[in-house]
Amino acid sequence: MLTWPAMAMLFVFAVFPLFIMLASSFQSDDGTAGIVLSNYARFFSKNTYLKLTGRTIVNSLLVTVISLIISYPLAYIMAKKLKGMKNVIMVLIIIPFFTNQLVRVYSWLIFLQDGGILESLLNSVGLVHGSLGILYTKTAVIIGLVHAFFPYMVITIYMALERMDNSLVEASSCLGASAFTTFRKIIFPISMPGVISGIMLVFVPCLGTFVEPRILGGVNGTVIGTVIEDQFFEIYGWNFGAAIAFILLAMVLISMAAISKWGKRYEE
Amino acid sequence: MKKALSKIYVLIILLYLYVPIIVLMLMGFNESRYNSMPFKLSFQWYQALAKDETLITAARNSLILAFITGIICVTLATLFILGQRFLSGRVKSVFDSVSMMPMSIPWLIMGLSLLLLIRALNLDKSMFFVGAGHVVISLPYSLLVLKARMASMDQSLEEMSASLGATPFTTFRRVTLPAIAPAMVAGGFLSFMISFDNFPISYFLTPSGISTLPIEIQSSIKFGFTPEINAVSTVIIGISLLCLAVTGLIMGSSLKSMMGKGDK
Amino acid sequence: MSKVVLENIVKKYGQNTVVKGVSLTAENGQLLSILGPSGCGKTTTLRMIAGFEQSDGGTISFDGKPMDKVPVNKRNIGMVFQSYALFPHMTVEDNIAYGLCQRNLSQSEIKERVEDAMKMVHLEDFAQRKPKALSGGQQQRVALARALVIKPDVLLLDECLSALDKKLRVEMQVELRRILDKTGVTTFFVTHDQEEAMTLSDKIVVMNNGVIEQVGSPYEVYERPKNRFVAGFLGKANFFEGRVTSMNAEEGYVVLEKDGNSVAIPAKDAVLGEDAVFAVRPEKMRISKAPVTGALKGVIEHITYSGNISSCNVECSGRSLVCEVSNDDMSERPQRGETVFVTWESAASVRIEG
């Protein structure tokens, strides 16, 4: 049947390799034969790895929250205020998606570096004196990640707000509610499905990033993704890497399920 | 007053989105080797780019890879979309989840799991697996575009064709294909772009000696860079925008013809 | 309860003047319908009373108090939208309680009033349901309860019965009238359905193209239309126009001449030598097979049978008249192609503006 080619590709090159990965995670890097739990044991016993997991989750949460804070007003303005410009702004928001990830990260590198444009600008205005010192800190990583992910949230929230019947807002007004109450009790709750989709699209991929943290954060940007990358390129502990990757996968799947469940509450 | 605030807010966000990229493009014309001020106009980096064999080869590799990926993705996606109506409910939902998998699972994991597959099969890294990886992650995007188009297409057109005596193949060729053709092109472009821009999969799976553009940029960053990278980045942005524009035009005009023909 | 007065209300959208100087008064407790075709400005006028749109000229006052500076949420109005606008994420109970929660009321009083409201619209058992689980008619009743429970000064209904099927619509009209009589709130009802307007209202305001064509009770507006538009919009009408060349007040007929053609019709209110236009309602006309003095002779072109009445198109010397006859005596029914004589009482000819 017609569906087989596509499915075969996916099963062979996407699903099956994950099982291989799982299998590898139970094998040892140092030559011990048979199934071992040492990889997992190592991950969970060492404090550094657990702190790492915590930091990755916190980073992702931070990026998600900041994205939400800057996306919501933008989506709201687009849906409610701008009549003619809606589509133009939407296109402008989508274009950066199609810029190469590396190019984007590189552009932030140049922009934030000591001796770069932002530094010159802030120096000339007097806001900062001397070197900027943002690059290679956690802040730079967050800036880069929010930049990469927040458009997803703008789109999902925008779609939810756009779909909302405007007469609901009017009904709330004539029943006596102030603009703030209307937002709190009507607009925001009804937009929740969009907010939750957005959270899903930001938080989950953020857990697995390794490019932005490494390039913009340097040493301060170590997250699970970068540690995994190291196992495969620097240290050659592939099986250990597989174990960490599997733990990351578990984190991804659990968060997806949790967010999805949370979202069901707001299903219309 | 409120309107002005809104506009300012939108502007700030757009600045956040675009300023670094614009700076990048500008720096490609800056003489400074270290991307620092002051600004002095120069085309030397573009000239260097034209002579840089490594970068040009990498660019060529990226383009060819993306092109092949695009074609394969569209073909597989089209076949899938046409065939999925014959699937039973349970199988359908399994296939649907699997097809969307590469969009939710970090590409890091997909890349390294393929690498582990190669090791398990005792093979060497090769472009075949790079291609397979690209196809697998780009496929969902083609699927999405085609699914959306199929959903909005009038089913009764095909039924009408059948009732007039056409064989399934003829129906496909003369009714279905023209209707989904724009979506196929759009899906192809989308997959092309995803593949062209992809870094994680390529990074994990390319054999030594072969490189793609994103990988070159990354090595440049890692090992100290020359602003040729700015020049090539600008070129990449240009290509991406071009693809986007073409896709937009195709989808836009197909939307118009959809409305004109009363397609629902 | 409020007396609402609109004085010379104007509304422009860009170059387009949608409402051109509308003045009307709704007395305390009156149900006033604003009737007109799509685009006539009726909904815009309603929205200005509500406060969603600001007028570009004129004043709106509730009980003498001008409302220009008063924002929507402070006007104490109740509104039922065409789409009902029920909050989808809240239960019926919470929807109805919403307006009360914005006012300083105790929890127990809110609960009591919500229960009373649900009883009034016969939805006591639906308190915990969400709007999507309700039928159109039920949603409508929730919307009404929500608007009334806050005891508004003015109630505004915006074509809110148009989404219901005919039978339900008629039921709701009766229900609505009953509830409004009980609560006694000043109500504005916007509709394009003239039957609905006539069934429900104390007073009808007929609007067309941004201006008021006529204001009056349903009887007045139907029996004594002021002009061609009103005559044609509310029900059907036959028009006769021309210069009065002769008249006979005793016998009660008038001869009108236009473009060389003369026609004599039963009518009274005319001045010799003047131009006049008369409108005659189809149900006032009587059709007989036998000749009658002063009647117009014609041939039946078409008959439409509608159960209780039959509508006949009669061709009389070049003009097509629409007559409605009651189907009480089916043996005497006229047939297509038959020659008949059409006549009516002279009082049934209403003189209207050209």
Can you walk me through this structure?
The complex is a heterotrimer of chains A (268), B (264) and C (354). Chain A has 12 helices and no strands. Chain A has 268 residues and is mainly alpha-helical. Chain A starts with a helix and ends with a helix. The longest helix of chain B has 33 residues. The radius of gyration of chain B is 23 Å and the shape is globular. Chain B has a single domain, classed as MetI-like fold (Orthogonal Bundle). Chain C is 23% helix and 36% strand. In chain C, strand 4 and strand 5 form a beta hairpin. In chain C, helix 3 packs across helix 4. The longest helix of chain C is centred in the middle third of the chain and has 18 residues. Chains in contact: A-B, A-C. Chains A and B meet through helix 1, helix 3, helix 4, helix 5 and helix 9 of A and helix 1, helix 3, helix 4, helix 5 and helix 6 of B.
Structure, briefly:
The complex is a heterotrimer of chains A (268), B (264) and C (354). Chain A is mainly α.
